[in-house]
Design goal:
It is a single chain. The protein has 70 residues and is mostly beta strands. It is built from no helices and seven strands. The strands form two sheets. The chain has a four-stranded antiparallel β-sheet with strand order 3-2-5-6, with no helix packed on it. The termini are far apart.
Length: 70
């Protein structure tokens, strides 16, 4: 699964934490806001970053997560 995390202006969020809900499996976004995580269809991702609201999204082949300011 190739995906990206961005802010409300469409800028990449570098170093956002991406966790597979209900597990301790996770990863961090790179300098382009991208991440890859092994997940199954129906799984949920929990995406968080300092001073931004945590987002929960369903896994899909390509996910764009937009984090909003707290």
């Amino acid at each position: 699964f190739r995906s990206i995390v961005q802010d409300k202006d469409g800028e990449p969020v570098i170093g956002a934490t991406v966790l597979l809900e209900g597990t301790n499996m996770g990863t961090v976004t790179d300098v382009d806001g991208r991440f890859v995580i092994p997940a199954a269809k129906g799984d949920k991702l929990v995406v968080s970053y300092v001073n931004m609201k945590t987002a929960k999204v369903k896994v899909a082949p390509k996910v764009t997560v937009t984090l909003k300011d707290e």
